[in-house]
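Shift notes (night). Ran Methionine synthase while the centrifuge was going.
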Amino acid sequence: MVDLKTLTGAVGELDEERVLEILNGFVSTNPSEEEAQKVVAACQSGMAIVGDLYEKGEYFVGDLIFAGELLTNAINTLKPVLGNTGSAGVGTIVLGTVAGDLHDIGKNIFKSMSEAAGFTVADLGIDQPASAFVEKVKELKPAVVGMSGVLTLALEAMKETVDALKEAGIRDSVKVIIGGNPVTKEACVQIGADAFTTNAAEGVKICQGWVK
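Came back to this:
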């Protein structure tokens, strides 16, 4: 079993070489699913450190992007052992950047961190109309719908998407979280979302609270 504190520290320091060295060594020991989940949790703790350092101004957006990529690589490395038992994830998230907005950095970071937390994420991509969210929710029946946007106009598109979910009669079957630079508590209320965040790590914690 790997030293989880060392792994958490390496993720927090964005030391990808060290992280992958630890994980490759771990996978080669043919660990159990339980052990693998502990390693994922350690990586997640490392991402929380990254989030904290970003909030303190010690890390920047570029570091968050790199952290997301690091986490994706880490999870990909662990996938062979994470799938040993075929256990189901904690829940499904339908995720996308709303219509009129082409930004995907925040969405991708949230996606990586959600997957690390055990969620199955259906990523619709960028510039997605309300109908795309509605159709995917009907298809997958997820626990959570996550909408991302950086531009101010994204707020209107988020509201249109929630309204479309209501019109389709499926709004009450999912929790809705919105994220991105323009979201605020007031916008969250106006849009009709259940939660908002500008921090991917916080967003994942909110989603985890919903599926407990």
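The beta strands are 91-97, 119-123, 144-148, 175-179, 195-197. The chain has two domains: 4-82, 91-210.
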